[in-house]
């Protein structure tokens, strides 16, 4: 349960000659808990959420941890009806990803499913995320994550809720 995913992810980082920092910490379930425990900003986290159309199709949406996923955007990218999409149950998450809720990494799952990556993930210099266990995380330069995502064949797009998109734009404007 999750241990195989940790090893699979470490192997992929090694094969691609990437340089993550591995972190062991107290168990975390929510993005807020993870950010606090890791000592990073919430925005740096990558949240991976499994969705289904209820007909045996699955997709994982990777978004910044401070944002919410737009189910409409996920359904559109996956070719599903907007009214059929739903988040996976904890049992389904374990069955498809091999991980508990709160430990799902943005890639490297037990079952190969389409990965939908929100482009705003690449706005950070570094990204942090759980790697299969609630007690194991990786911190990696975002340009290396982009390289990894290209290698595993993700679909890049806009997968955060529109209200959250406006908040991202406003925070960028304030920072300038």
Write the layout of secondary structure elements.
Elements: H1 3-15, E1 21-24, H2 31-38, E2 46-52, E3 58-64, H3 71-78, E4 86-87, H4 90-97, E5 115-118, E6 126-130, E7 136-141, H5 142-152, E8 155-157, H6 162-175
Parallel strand pairs: 3-5, 5-8
Antiparallel strand pairs: 1-7, 2-3, 2-4, 6-7
Percent range of helical residues: 25-40%
Q: How many individual β-strands?
A: 8
What Rg, in angstroms, do the CA atoms define? Answer: 15 Å
Distance between the termini: 44 Å
Number of helices: 6
Oligomer classification: single chain
Task: Work out the strand percent.
Answer: 15-25%
Which structural class should the secondary elements be placed in? alpha/beta
Helix and strand element order: HEHEEHEHEEEHEH
The gross shape turns out to be globular
Question: Which stretches are low in confidence, meaning pLDDT under 50 for 5 or more residues running?
Answer: none
Biggest β-sheet: count, sense, barrel? 5 strands, mixed
Mean pLDDT score, rounded?
Answer: 91
**Strand order in the sheet with the most strands:** 4-2-3-5-8
């Amino acid at each position: 349960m999750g241990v195989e995913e940790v090893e699979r992810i470490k192997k992929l980082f090694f094969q691609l000659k990437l340089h993550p920092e591995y972190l062991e910490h107290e168990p975390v379930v929510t993005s807020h808990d993870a950010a606090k425990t890791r000592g990073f900003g919430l925005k740096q986290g990558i949240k991976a959420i499994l969705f289904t159309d209820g007909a045996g199709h699955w997709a994982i949406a990777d978004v910044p941890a401070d944002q919410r996923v737009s189910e409409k955007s996920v359904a559109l990218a996956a070719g599903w009806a907007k009214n059929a999409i739903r988040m996976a149950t904890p049992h389904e998450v374990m069955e498809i990803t091999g991980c508990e809720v709160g430990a799902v990494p943005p890639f490297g799952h037990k079952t190969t499913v389409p990965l939908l990556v929100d482009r705003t993930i690449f706005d950070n210099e570094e990204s942090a995320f759980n790697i299969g266990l609630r007690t194991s995380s990786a911190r990696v330069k975002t340009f290396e994550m982009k390289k990894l995502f290209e290698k595993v064949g993700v679909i890049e797009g806009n997968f955060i809720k529109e209200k959250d998109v406006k908040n991202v734009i406003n925070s960028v404007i304030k920072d300038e």
